[in-house]
Design goal:
By secondary structure, the chain is of the alpha+beta class. About 20% of the residues lie in helices and about 30% in strands. Strands 5-4-3-7-10-11 form a six-stranded antiparallel sheet, sandwiched between helices. Strands 6-12-13-14 form a four-stranded antiparallel sheet, with helices on one face. Strand 1 and strand 2 (about 80-85) form a beta hairpin.
Amino acid sequence: MLLRDLDSGFTIVEVMIVMAITIILFASAANLVNGRQNQAEFTQATGNIQALIQLQADDVINGSYTSNVGSFRCTPGSSNVGIQLGGSDSQGQHLGCIFLGKLIQFGVLNSSAPASSNSIFYTYSVVGSQCASGDSVEQSSGNLCVFSTSITSAEPTINSYLAYQHSLINGLKVSQMYYNNNPKNITANVAFLQSLASYDTSGASELASGSQQIQLWTVTNVPQGLDSNNVITNVNNASGTSDWTQVSQIDICFASGTTPQSELLEIGGQGSQLSLTTKMYEGSSC
């Protein structure tokens, strides 16, 4: 039996084999670590958007709205509510205006992100007119106006002064969004709105029910791919029309930008307009 000369060392072939095995093991370890990191980032991103959606619903429950310009004045009109700078942003200081809720619009164009990223979304406070006709609360006759008893009669309105920009993180994007559990009912927004009081007669004094519930709505004429100014225009043009649609459920499919997986977020559909449930899927579609 021949033994290797101890002073001869390893051959080039043997060294190359060892290097190849080392590279393969290193690549496998790197892919494993990277995969776990991508998974963690996806979980963080979906958790982040769920928390923000829940926060908007909680704001509606608490009657909380915020302005990005400080003081503003809310003035009811014959078609839409007007928002101007100045005045007071304190709750209860806007006679004739009512806070209806919050609207979240996905896929908003912005110069800070490419259109293909689909990562920008906005939250808007929705305001409306306390009087169905947009008149003053107290008429010249001394009588009260006829109060709005439905979302559409309140002329729901959004404005840039009551809007905030957000971004989906870690490459997360909306791959699909629809309502009432039907993928053909495509939408790009969800609104949490308060129901309004009802009255026995056409007068404002005969209150039948003052109870309020949070309802799910969507505005069907506002697709993804609009900038915020056009979102505001489309929403306000839909005021008082059937484009404002009350729904029982909103489904949003969030796809990972780094891993082949997605998560379906169901809003409503569990006997509660405020319930949030999730389902995980393999692949970029739910």
